[in-house]
Design goal:
40% of the residues lie in helices and 18% in strands. The protein contains 20 helices and 24 strands.
Length: 630
């Protein structure tokens, strides 16, 4: 069977973070699972580079958009390599193969009357690449709960796509195919959205030229959603490519819940207009929230360096943690403390320790040679039954796009394997006369348990599989072999090896060295009267830009208690200017002004730092600029 799976194409406006990584890791686990089953898998990911905010970000850095996105895309591809992402194709919307398909589709839709020219006036949010009607704005700002930033009123000549024409056909498809939008909560949201009435979609812009030109009207460039969504068939060579004919329609489009609307409404309507089959499933997973609350995102300034996390804990640990924490239909919570706890308890203690002590006993009692097993007892029969049950449950969860549920099932088997060690007590059997055959059976089952676990874990932790395979002298094997026993040949040589997942002390993670975390000494005490002299205020960032001829300084314009002040801050290596606009920070408001690089700075923002990590203190609640911080 063929299996076509996609991630969304990601905005390369900065390095990828953990939230971005989750979608790609989940898609990779699903793709690897299907390959283990013997299916013909095609896994697509990529980057969405034709957007106005790419232009603005590049301009802020003083380089052209192509040069900018090339550098960021390289970081995406580097991270996917470190995370063992097994994609078959990586599409960039700046590629010629994509441009040709988009222009062909635009022309066809125009010629058949589904695209028409008119004039658009509306409120535009550049970070979201979305137009909003005035009644949708919240306090005059972008209504996206993850954004809330300033919008601008735009009026320009545009081409429009007749979304409203296909509204009833789309609703009919959603109702006849309940599996089309998952999970159920997203499906219900989309039904309500479509039932409320669809407006025709603006599909071209004239105010910038970065993007794909409309072939018959080159002053227009194709607007982002019509451009971006087409990547899923452009990568396959639509309309006549061999891959398109073989792999389309997609089995699943996997994405975060914030862009389900575009994939479950705009994209299927485009396909309906083209008379192209719709994807089988659009699946919108939750967000990763910080432990303090709020989505982990670049705009919130709470992202962590994915490369640094991999350096500290390894790719498999990161993959396991993210996949285990994102339950179906809900948001996941990320913190480094929780990651270390999962690594130590699940991976080091439960799985790693089972493999290590089992193989150590084989080496100790049988010189590392797998013995011929004797007859089963009810314990072995129970293990056989449970392994088949777990294998089937894992398969069902993965077919339902639920890696977290699949891992929970696997860890049921891990727990039973550890219990089997304690129940059989091979260290005691080794001391008893006449128990050699029973000890052989137990030791043989140890290797079989490890072999089965190796297959079960392979889609989720691909770096683990070759390590275990080397220890037990057998390759991972096909998925069906996870439900069969007795595949390890007696006489096979096994090794104990190094611990698969060494325990981690979170206080010993400075540049990879085992030493206590070093902090600056706490300063001498001050009286409450001295502290009371400082006036901390909430400040809203209304403008941000880099200070010329410096890599570290940002010039921030802030609204504080009805006045706009200028503050120069040394955070440019940690925040892009556009990441701060509209955010609320805390400022020492009564600090004596000082001139920095010729700019008079009227305050200081608060930030926490340690080593190379810095995070500005930001507020999420709707407090006005000037509110007192006590």
């Amino acid at each position: 069977m063929k299996y076509y799976i996609t991630t969304p194409i990601f905005y390369p406006n900065s390095s990828p973070h953990i939230g971005t990584a989750y979608t790609t890791i989940a898609a990779d686990a699903l793709a690897r699972f299907q390959r283990l089953k013997g299916n013909d898998v095609y896994f697509l990911t990529g980057t969405d580079e034709n957007a106005q905010k790419i232009v603005r970000t590049a301009e802020s850095k003083g380089i052209n958009p192509k040069e900018y996105v090339d550098g960021v895309v390289e970081r995406f591809q580097e991270l996917w390599k470190l995370l063992n992402i097994s994609y078959d194709d990586f599409i960039r919307t700046t590629e010629e193969r994509h441009h040709k398909v988009v222009q062909g589709i635009f022309t066809r839709l125009y010629e058949q009357g589904d695209i028409y020219k008119s004039e658009y006036e509306g409120w535009y949010c550049t970070p979201c690449e979305t137009f909003w009607t005035e009644n949708k704005l919240v306090d005059g700002k972008c209504p996206n709960p993850d954004c809330g930033r300033e919008v601008e009123l735009l009026k320009e000549e545009s081409y429009f796509f007749r979304m409203s024409k296909y509204q009833d056909r789309l609703l009919d498809h959603i109702r006849k195919h309940p599996e089309f939008i998952q999970p159920v909560s997203r499906r219900n949201e989309m039904i309500r959205f479509v039932e409320s009435g669809l407006e025709d979609l603006c599909v071209s812009r004239t105010t910038f030229q970065w993007g794909i030109q409309v072939p018959f009207d080159p002053k227009h460039v194709v607007y982002v959603w019509l451009d971006a969504l087409i990547n899923y068939i452009a990568a396959l060579g639509y309309p006549e490519g061999e891959k398109y004919g073989h792999y389309w329609p997609a089995e699943v489009h996997l994405m975060g819940k914030d862009i389900v609307r575009f994939h479950a409404v705009i994209w299927p309507i485009i396909l309906l207009a083209l008379d192209v089959p719709l994807p089988k499933v659009v699946y919108g997973h939750g967000w990763f929230l910080s432990k303090e609350g709020g989505k982990i995102s670049k705009s919130r300034g709470n992202v962590q360096d994915s490369f640094e996390l991999i350096r500290r804990y390894g790719s498999d640990a990161i993959r396991y943690f993210l996949l285990r924490e994102m339950q179906v239909g809900t948001d996941g919570t990320y913190s480094e403390d929780a990651l270390v706890e999962r690594l130590n308890s699940d991976l080091a203690n439960d799985l790693g320790n089972f493999v290590s002590r089992s193989l150590a006993m084989l080496v100790k009692y049988r010189g590392g040679i797998v013995p011929e097993p004797g007859p089963d007892t009810p314990l072995e029969q129970e293990l056989r039954a449970l392994s088949l049950e777990v294998k089937n449950e894992v398969e069902a969860r993965m077919e339902a796009f639920d890696p977290a549920g699949a891992l929970e099932q696997i860890w049921r088997f891990v727990a039973r394997c550890n219990k089997y060690v304690d129940e059989t007590a091979p260290w005691s059997l080794a001391k008893q006369v006449g128990q050699e055959q029973r000890l052989n059976t137990v030791l043989y089952y140890f290797v079989e348990e490890i072999r089965i676990l190796n297959i079960l874990c392979a889609p989720f932790m691909p770096g683990l599989s070759p390590k275990i395979s080397r220890l037990i002298g057998r390759n991972t094997g096909a998925w069906e072999e996870a439900g069969r026993w007795g595949l390890t040949a007696p006489g096979t040589k096994v090794e104990k090896g190094e611990p698969l997942f060494p325990r981690v002390d979170i206080l010993q993670l400075i540049d990879g060295e085992d030493k206590a975390m070093e902090f600056e000494p706490i300063k001498e005490e001050v009286s409450i009267e001295d502290f009371a002299k400082l006036d901390f205020r909430v400040a809203k960032v209304v403008k941000a830009e880099k200070v010329e001829k410096t890599d570290k300084l940002l010039k921030l314009e802030m609204e504080i208690a009805g006045e706009v002040r200028t503050v120069v801050s040394g955070i440019a290596q940690h925040y892009a200017p556009e990441d701060l606009i509209g955010r609320k920070v805390v400022v020492v408001a009564n600090l004596k002004p000082a001139k920095l690089r010729g700019i008079m700075s009227q305050g200081m923002i608060l930030a926490a730092s340690h080593g190379d990590t810095l995070e500005v203190l930001m507020l999420d609640k709707n407090l006005p600029g000037g509110a007192r911080v006590k």
